[in-house]
Amino acid sequence: MLSGNLDQVELKLGKVVGKHWKVCSRLGSGGCGTVFLVEDINTRSKAALKAESHNIPGGSVLKLEVQVLRRLEGRKHVPQLLRAGKKEAYSYMVMTLLGDNIEKLFRLCHKQFSISTQVRLGIHILFALKQLHEVGFLHRDVKPANLALGIGEHDSRVVYLLDFGFAREFIYSGDGRVELRRERFRVHFRGTARYCSARTHHRKEQGRCDDLWSLFYVVAEFRGPLPWANTSNRNEVASLKETMPDVRLLSRSPSQLLDIPTHLRELGYYDRPDYLRIFHAFEAVLEAQGIRFYDPYDWELEPSYKKTVPNTSVRTIESTSTDRPFDSNRQKGSDRSNRPNSLESPTTESKEDVAGYKIEDFKKNELGF
């Protein structure tokens, strides 16, 4: 059923879609469809259903999202596609239900995270982007609103990448080979001006390095407003990105993170980023400041924060991974006061396992280029 706005889909509460998924509530809407909370009528598992009208201007975005999620199937710490289908008036997909997005949590924490939270989130986002890149896709719109916590005992402290409406496949498969697609001379602007790379402003073809520039700007903003936060002029934003010294951009951040933009400037469209080098920049902060991955995130210390917990009578669809986060040394200090020592953490620690991510996860090159 379509609303008065022909590009939005409204489904009645209680409606069963695909003979399986009962609509429980409406979660939100945007330019790429309407999202509903749904329940499996057989198992009572909760999930998210995104519906997109066939009348949406510019063609289907959902089809692209389905393609990306199918490519990511079975990977650790990524949303899983549970079902996709097509109705007379709309198409839909059902995927893993996620919790609060980072933009909301950032506002809850008065738009400034501690270094502890900043760096740990950076590792989560880096891993999520590497997972996407390894299956041949770029995100092209990395921002706090497109990053969300999982739901469940372990997943609620893991950050997931979502909303692949601007994604682009950067590989070509043919004749039994997988190769990089050729760089286009000039392209349309895709992304969010605040977080996209300077190359993107100049309509250059985005590569893996451009997603990581967005990661860098997001992580820098976690410590305070970006220098271009108050301007909507894209040319002015681009100029500031090209002229702003890294030391100033990271003035509230640990100096170890300066190696990230240094590395990114070495890369062009065809170059593969050194994900392990970037991970080591974050890891150096953990070790220098004695930060543990099981320490509370800033929002967990806010009195108004209510952890997203599913109804105890309902099973949620969670990651099948049983990996537990690694804890570095016990936290020695923090730039936030009244911080408890830690959340409940495992009794054993492994230097080779960081938040369910092994060092090898950042080393391996699955595409080969």
UniProtKB/TrEMBL annotation:
Record's keyword annotation contains Nucleotide-binding: yes
Region (Disordered) residue spans: 311-356
Span of domain Protein kinase: 21-283
Keywords: ATP-binding, Kinase, Nucleotide-binding, Serine/threonine-protein kinase, Transferase
PROSITE patterns: PROTEIN_KINASE_DOM (PS50011)
Name assigned to this protein: Protein kinase domain-containing protein
Comp. bias regions, Polar residues: 311-323, 339-348
Gene3D superfamilies, A to Z: Transferase(Phosphotransferase) domain 1
Organism whose genome encodes this protein: Steinernema carpocapsae (Entomopathogenic nematode)
Matches recorded under InterPro entries: CK1_Ser-Thr_kinase (IPR050235), Kinase-like_dom_sf (IPR011009), Prot_kinase_dom (IPR000719), TTBK_Asator-like_STKc (IPR047916)
GO MF annotation: an example: ATP binding
Pfam families tied to this protein: Pkinase (PF00069)
